[in-house]
């Protein structure tokens, strides 16, 4: 194979981690030919949709508890790479954190993040090759050949696989490269949508579509407490949504699909405080019908839903007819509203993949153990973070780390 035809580093996937990997690799090895092979017509399409178009690119609290999966050295990788603020600062993107520690570009605009990444990649001489869908990797003695289904071949010395997982296939990520890596000796952990709404029986949500309420969500499996989180809960026709629900989705695969979410819709009130409130309202509104009992505590649809579900009877009776036991049932439901989870929302509604290529398949440089010269980064690996900037932080850190190690593995080679 003639030398000039071989690319030094080919990166499969031009998303968050692929762009970070390309910039780092080319910074370290300016003479290396670095090419991003992206299947869509342009790189970074998913990035534009992140954070509702604002790109929540990291978080001030990066403690390990926010990450789940089998990549054991994730914390070390994040410590060994610049923080998102430093990395983006070096690209001229200023960042700010909100009151919950979520870091955004100062522009509040995801396009500025993507543009800055692309500008730096271009300044360095990284080549973007869009419309190239990697379908197969052939290994030669000193090089690889990445090919498309139509037989186009791309020879290269090293590969960084940054092709994401299964979540949000509308942005190019359909898990096909995970399947490709299986043929390279990789194994995967259990895969399911994460950072996603959770499905419940639609009849349990009748009348709640579009309702939003503040509360605490606690996850249980077989009665065992798993975790809890407070925030806004959103109800749809057939699922529970909102960040505090999204962050429970990764538990489904880990607890064999046996998951119950308990909502406390008055997390700021003790039981007896809530009972005291209900008794006062019971006294004051006695001549009104029971559909008005919770007016002032919840929005109309939710108020009616709770009273109906707790008492199991129509809302046409007078509030005065309710007994103290009825009020207790209502208080009990407000603080302990259980939903058995049927599963996650489909991939198109999920933001992240829980599971992926097992951490056991890569060494501590993120290089495949079964095939030297191939490095992995981003969501394709079995690691997912909570909602709040954690997944993009992993994409930047692992991309930079894989880009650096991949470039360094070429040191001494005549490029
Ligand atoms: C709607 C939405 C909002 C989100 N918001 C946030 C947020 O605010 N904060 C946060 O931290 N995380 C967020 N995420 C998650 C975050 O975007 C991902 O975790 C992150 O982009 C993963 O980076 P990656 O480089 O691994 O993969 P991706 O960014 O998904 O990039 C993978 C790239 O590989 C390409 N590709 C796939 N297969 C092939 C192939 N065979 N050949 C060539 N190219 C291929 C794809 O087209 C894609 O461009 C959000 C996700 C979604 C869907």
**Main beta sheet:** 7 strands, mixed
Which range best describes the helical content: under 10%, 10-25%, 25-40%, 40-55%, 55-70% or over 70%? 25-40%
CATH architectural category of the largest domain: 3-Layer(bba) Sandwich
What is the mean predicted local confidence, pLDDT? 95
Count of alpha and pi helical runs:
12
Q: At the third CATH level, what is the topology name of the largest domain?
A: FAD/NAD(P)-binding domain
Shape: elongated
Low-confidence stretches: none
Determine the structural class based on helices, strands and strand pairing: alpha+beta
Q: How many distinct domains? A: 2
Strand count: 21
Radius of gyration: 25 Å
Structure summarized in a few sentences:
With 415 residues, the protein is of the alpha+beta class. It has 2 domains: 3-192 and 351-408, FAD/NAD(P)-binding domain (3-Layer(bba) Sandwich), CATH 3.50.50.60; 197-344, no CATH class. It has helices at residues 16-28, 45-49, 74-79, 84-90, 110-124, 176-182, 243-246, 251-254, 271-284, 300-311, 324-335, 390-408; strands spanning 7-12, 34-38, 58-59, 67-69, 95-97, 102-105, 127-130, 136-139, 144-147, 153-161, 192-194, 198-199, 212-221, 224-235, 239-241, 260-264, 337-340, 343-344, 352-354, 374-376, 383-385.
